[in-house]
């Protein structure tokens, strides 16, 4: 089975194997077993890592839910994540949301496109961009899953506007978190911890950025 996928999570398995969890363009979420992937001479070496986009070939599972990974060709990687802890946390929040809500082996092509675009948007993103891009991903994703309706609160609708203008809304991150959580819990879905961690750190970073800007403004006005 051939497909294109993005790695959501990886874990060591046995002595030399790796289990990679993917979101794929054609087959949705799936788990694959990459045999001997941790050996230095493995053909998978350097290809299986978080948020790598790859062309893959797998065989269907027989006695387990693990597809066997036969071939893996790297298409792109999110190398910029190594330069920003906050961007890493944004990706972890998005990945955990996808894993907690979607079902395995169910085609979700629109969600794959949203996730792929989110990875591209994070390249060189500043703090304000992180808020915007994550908001766009979460709202589109939850709407596609039927968790959120098309009708959004005014504050979130302003942020999702297509005019290109980013409207400032006080305490927006917390408003988004509370609004989405209410609808997740209503459908008996647990908000991921990685998402809560990202929101908390984003709010701290925004406050630090605002304080720094205020100090700079005071310094400029005193000259």
Give the topology, please.
Blueprint (H helix, E strand, L loop, with lengths): L1 E12 L3 E8 L3 E7 L18 E7 L6 E11 L8 H17 L7 H13 L5 H18 L9 H6 L12 H15 L6 H29 L2
Parallel strand pairs: 3-5
Antiparallel strand pairs: 1-2, 1-4, 2-3, 4-5
Helix pairs in contact: 1-2, 1-3, 1-6, 2-3, 3-6
Word description of this protein:
There is one protein chain. A five-stranded mixed beta barrel has the order 1-2-3-5-4. With 223 residues, it is of the alpha+beta class. The model has no long low-confidence stretch (mean pLDDT 88). It starts with a strand and ends with a helix. It has six helices and five strands. It folds into two domains: 2-77, Nucleic acid-binding proteins (OB fold (Dihydrolipoamide Acetyltransferase, E2P), Beta Barrel), CATH 2.40.50.140; 80-221, no CATH class.
In short:
By secondary structure, the chain is α+β, with helices and mostly antiparallel strands. The chain has helices at residues 85-101, 109-121, 127-144, 154-159, 172-186, 193-221; strands at 2-13, 17-24, 28-34, 53-59, 66-76. Helix content is 44%, strand content 20%.
What descriptive keywords fit this protein?
223 residues; alpha+beta; five-stranded mixed β-barrel; 44% helix; 2 domains; single chain; 6 helices; OB fold (Dihydrolipoamide Acetyltransferase, E2P); globular
